Amino acid sequence: MIKTLLDNFSPGDNAVIWLIAAFVLAFVMAYRAFPAILYVSNEKHLMDEPDSRSLHSTKTPTLGGIGIFLGVIVVITIVGAFLNTKVLLLVMGGLTVLFFLGLKDDLTILSPGKKMVGQLFVASLLIVFTDTRIIGFSSILDVNTLPYWVSVGFTLFVYILIINAYNLIDGVDGLAGTIALTVSAIFVYLFVNAEDLSLATIAIALCGSLLAFLRFNFSLSKKIFMGDTGSMIVGFLLAFFTISFINMAQVDEASDYYKASPALAFALLFYPFIDTLRIFFIRIVIHKTSPFKADKNHIHHWFIKIGYSHLMTTILICSINFVIVCIAFNMLHLDLNIQILCLLLYGIALYLIPFGLHKIKNSSKITENEVG
Which of 8, 180, 251, 367 has the highest count of CB atoms within 10 angstroms of its CB? Predict the structure, then answer.
């Protein structure tokens, strides 16, 4: 009876229930794992020691990535037989490789070069064996289709850019997790519309795991950080979602996003991208140092410096990024080059608003003190 039921079961016929079940399973697995991870971290002193760059003053466990990985991997393992097994197995393999690389970096030290090699390896597996890559520039600068090897090389570059850009924003409580949760939820919507339940399932499993993580990341007494383990696997999944979305749109001329997918993908990850570009400019051009030398010049650091709390910084940045995405969805009818130009203009302008508001607030206080 059970065999007959399984043979006749189709996730596509029960997509809403299926996705809810995947979300709940990922959330429960991750949520139940974090107390054990916290206990082991405390017992074995696996803590992040505050330094000159830290925005926290107490020792904090950095193994949150373990719980996120567990939630996603359990969902993929259990539901894999009903979906696109080839894609799920490759994603699971890539996650596992990055999980152990990140874990080694969290527990000891792993050189940037070795992490880069691992990232290139797992990205190459997905590109070669699934042929999921950015086919062209969708008429950006009048470039449509790229030669195969140029396409593969550019897609590898995008993977590395997104993974490391996401890693760089992990500096304020809740910021990296909330950005990833919002972006993943939007990808669930996009993949459901594209009728790709396999990708939608992975995306919603990541949502469940991240929601459980945020419960502890925001906690005062049971706080845990994502660590390199978490930032690498989440960054990898966001990169995979982004490239898969662009690829699906580019091969389907009937898609609503056929000529607009690069702009929408840019909007979804606008904050990590713009912060990385800004940081690299400051480090290379102004300070004339290595672009990988850590500092406190990220946008979230400046929000903290001018007086915003961790929570308010996260709320502001995530709200701005969400507004940017909403505007991008309403500009899909425009020429792609115009979309990207407008995105840069209104995106940068929106991130300057909190600084303007703070300046106005301080000016008002000064005026009141002078009057008083």
Answer: 180
3-class DSSP state of 145: strand
Residue 98 near residue 25 (C-beta atoms within 8 A) = no
- For the chain, the 3-state helix, strand and coil shares in percent, each to the nearest 5, are 75, 5, 25
The candidate with the shortest Cα–Cα distance to 243, out of 90, 123, 100, is 123
Distance CA 232, CA 102 (A): 7
Q: Which residue's structure tokens are 């994603």?
A: 91
Tokens for 24? Answer: 């709940």
Please report whether residue 262 resides in a domain. Answer: yes
Which residue matches tokens 């662009």? 246
SS3 letters across 266-308: HHHCHHHHHHHHHHHHHHHHHCCCCCCCCCCCCHHHHHHHCCC
Sequence-distant (6+) residues with CB within 8 A of 87 are: 130, 198, 199
Residue length of the chain: 372
pLDDT in tens, the chain (372 residues): 556 655 566 666 678 888 999 999 999 999 999 999 999 888 877 776 655 555 555 678 889 999 999 999 999 998 877 787 889 999 999 999 999 999 998 888 888 888 999 999 999 999 999 999 999 876 676 667 889 999 999 999 999 999 999 988 887 889 999 999 999 999 999 999 998 999 999 999 999 999 999 999 998 888 899 989 999 999 999 999 999 999 999 888 888 898 889 999 999 999 999 998 888 888 887 877 776 677 777 888 888 888 888 888 999 999 999 999 999 999 988 888 899 999 999 999 998 887 777 677 666 665 555 555
DSSP state of 58: S
Residue 299, domain member (yes or no): yes
Q: What domain range includes position 291?
A: 254-360
Asked if the structure places residue 260 within a domain, the reply is yes
Q: How many domains does the chain divide into?
A: 1
The whole-angstrom separation of Cα 317 and Cα 322 is 9
Instruction: Answer whether residue 318 is part of any domain.
Output: yes
Give Cα separations from 210 to 69, 72, 324, 333, 349 (angstroms): 10, 10, 22, 33, 29
CA 308 to chain centre: 23
